[in-house]
Every structure is written in structure tokens, then in C-alpha cells.
Amino acid sequence: NYWQGFGLCLYLFMKGNPLAKERIKKFVGGQAVIEGVMMRGPGYTATAVREPSGSIVVQKEATTSIQERYPILKKPFLRGCIALYESLVIGMKALSFSAKAAGDEEEEMSNSEIAITMVFSTLFAIALFVALPTFVVKFIPGIQDNHFILNLVEGAIRLALFLLYIWGIGQTKDIQRVFQYHGAEHKTIHAYENNLPLTVENVRIQSRLHPRCGTNFLLIVMVVSIFVFAFLGWPNLLERIVSRVLLMPVVAGIAYEFIRFAGRSESSFVKSLVKPGLALQYMTTREPEADQIEVAIRALEEVRPPEEDAYEDETY
To answer: How far apart are CA 261 and CA 14, in angstroms?
Structure first.
């Protein structure tokens, strides 16, 4: 019918591709760590770190996901929640290894220590980005009788706190070096996705901004949460906090699907939607040095699939 036809046309317009199978590069993602880069490919995860001696040490492990045992978790919106959880766990392990390899810690964190750290980090995030905004907004005059506006203003405060937090941590020298490795990670992935040999020269000329970046994901989470929470009414403080925490997997699932979609779309419309997230990456990335690019290349080389397995078919 008319609406189905309209929906199909809009979908194809956003995709920017015909109804056909396309050979696309398998996703490789990454994360900057202390004096290094973690890369995660289809089969392995590798963390490469520059030791104080100048050599590069690598920790490589097979990539396994609960989605392989329970295929239903690969469905859209569910896979985003699983990917977020697994990324947090893998990221914490990579940070622990990098801290030890870079000489900042005497030993790696145990699984229990990682779990405790994740719990405290989650509680801190809830307090700063959920509890504080929804508490502060009640002191703003003139909007107390409009629950929809209250939710929108709360979301705006949450977004402002997020941007202020990113700016604040970026002022420290240690984080600035991490941001340089973040830029090296993005540039190396761009070179891989553009089928270029992974050399310092080829990587250096790539953009340090990437549409699938975690920074972009977090910004989209913040924006999506504004619209999702806007229709929840305005119950008491505890109910507001609990409702936002319980709905966060829904928000993360929506944001993940958009990031995944944007990473493969050539549509100018979609590209315009991710521009704010790309602009934010000017705060979370820095231009890397040659030795930092070498570390990122080493990490990606460890996880890149063989050429015959590097592509998959996707039907649009």
C-alpha cells in the first residue's frame, strides 16, 4: 500500500544503495588504552602497548560472544545491549593489561576487581548523568507544570554535563596521550576499510574521525534518551531514576542500530545526522605520532581476518 511504498523509498534513500547484495568489509572496532590500542576483529581481540623500553607488547585472545550460543541475541536492538556489555568487559581487561605493560601498575586486575570497577563506574555514571540532572531540573522556575518540558530540560542538562566531562578529562596530559592513540585507532581502521596497505604513511593521511566511534555512540545515547524519557511523565525522584536506568538498554539498542547503519551508509542525509558526533571527536581524538600509529597498526594486524574471509554479503 501507499505507506509501505513510502517506507521502502525512505529506507532506500537513507541507505543510498539498490536492492542487491554487496560485498562489505567485516567490522573491526577498537579502543585507545594506556600507551596503546585495543582492536577487536571477527575472530580475535588484540591489545598492543608501547612499553617503556620502546618495544611493542601484544596480548591476543580469541573473540567469543554469547551471541554465538544464543543467536536470538543477534537480532536488532538486542545485539546493541550485548555488544555494549561485552565491549565494557573487554575494554576493562585491555585497560588493565595496558596499565601493567606501560609500567603504571605492578599486575593486571583480576576478574573480580574488574567486576567491582565496572559496578562503581556504573554507579558513578548513574549519579552524574541520571540522578543529578533529574534532581537539578526541579529548581528551574517556570517549567514545573509541564512534564514534557521538564524531561527535555533534564535531557539538555545531562548532555551539557556529558560534554563538560569530556572537555574536563581532556585537559590532563595522560588523557591527551590516550586521545592521540584514539586518533591512531580511527586512522588505522579507515586505512583497513579503504583496502590500503597498513603503513604509517597510509594511515597518517586518514581522518581521525569515524562514524562508529564510541564517542559518537554516547552522544547518540544522550540525544535518544531525551526523546524516550520525554514521554514518561514526572513521577517522584526515585521512580525517575529507576525508570531511566531500566530504559537505558532500550536507548542503547536504538543508538547501536543507528551507529551500525551510519557506518555503512553512503547517504548524504545519514552523514548529516552523524556530523555532531564526528565534531565531538575533535575533543576525544588528537593527531597521533608515528610511533603511536605503529602500535595501532600492530594491533589491527593481529585481528584482521584473512583476505578470503574479510568480506561478507549484506542485502539492502
So the answer is: 9
135-180: pLDDT as tens digits: 999 889 888 888 889 999 999 999 999 999 999 999 999 999 999 9
Distance between CA 31 and CA 88 in Å, rounded? 10
- Residue 102 cell numbers, joined: 606501560
C-alpha distances (whole Å) from 60 to each of 37, 233, 274 are 12, 48, 32
pLDDT tens track for 191-225: 999 999 999 999 999 999 998 888 888 888 888 99
Which parts of the chain register pLDDT below 50? Answer: 1-23, 308, 313-316
162 touches 133 (CB < 8 A): no
Contact 228, 253 (CB under 8 A): no
CA distances from 303 to 23, 192, 208, 211, 300 (A): 20, 11, 20, 21, 5
Contact 211, 277 (CB under 8 A): yes
